[in-house]
Design brief:
The C terminus is likely disordered. The chain folds into 2 domains: about 200 residues, P-loop containing nucleotide triphosphate hydrolases (Rossmann fold), CATH 3.40.50.300; about 80 residues, no CATH class. The chain is an alpha/beta fold. A hairpin with a 3-residue loop joins strand 11 and strand 12. The protein contains 9 helices and 13 strands. The strands form 3 sheets. The protein has a 6-stranded mixed β-sheet, sandwiched between helices. It has a 4-stranded antiparallel β-sheet with strand order 11-12-10-13. The chain has a 3-stranded antiparallel β-sheet with strand order 2-1-4, with helices on one face. It starts with a strand and ends in a 19-residue tail after the last helix.
Amino acid sequence: MNAILQAHALGKRYGQRQALADCSLEIPPGHVVGLVGPNGAGKTTLLKIACGMLAPTTGRIEVLGEQPNGGTAQLARVGYVAQDTPTYGNLSVADHLKFGAKMNPGWDAKLAQARVEQLGLDPKQKVSKLSGGQRAQLALTVAVAKRPELLILDEPVASLDPLARRDFLRYLMESVAEHDTNVLLSSHLVSDLERVCDYLVVLVSSRVQLAGETEDLLAQHHRIVCTRRQESDLPAGLEVVWAKHTDRQSTFVVRSERELPAGDWSAEHLELEDLVLAYMERAVDTGRGGAGPGGRTTMQPTGEAR
């Protein structure tokens, strides 16, 4: 298997609204992938297509080398936890495990039971009486006990408090390490992605803006602060991702796959959140017609450089 997910020119339209457009992406196996972007970027649409819940309007996609809607055998290879960590309020914890066992041929009953005991959940308890964090953990338990090759999580911790988020993510990483599961995790909480993800995809305005191994991306990007100048005055080989100017000072976020050349500036690597924000701002500005010469994108000189 060369990729856990391959998409080419993928698009999805709901009536007049384009939810996903010209999305091309290839994610290699062996990663916990963070999918990040603003609300409305198309993250949920992409994940629903990947797990076979939606059919694309245009383009093509393969998940684990097969079509997402390839039948029960393909569905058994993918676990999915939706945004609202779906559970059934009128069913008990035990009922959820029985349902999971009936629906999934690879069900790991020992894993599910052990996790329920570890969480301290009463098997007879109706799920409607559980806390949000407990419901999220139960949904994750059911998905993991399915023993999928790919686990897709759509903002599963967005509504949880910090302690519940920490516990959820900790169990996720324990499961990944123990069962060698590929994970595709959508979130707008970059701090959570930074803790668990080693591969990053930035999706803005229905298009992929950046994708790659997190460590490599952070090594390739720098923030440069210098006396005011134009992008064309920077050394060749630097891709300007984001720029902002004051009367005397310019701040650039640049990408270079080689060592950053020496210059009359101060330079520093970016934190993950700054990297994500730079590409999000570039995508928004490009959509307003802000692309500069050679595809470089700039922001208008307003406010102080940051």
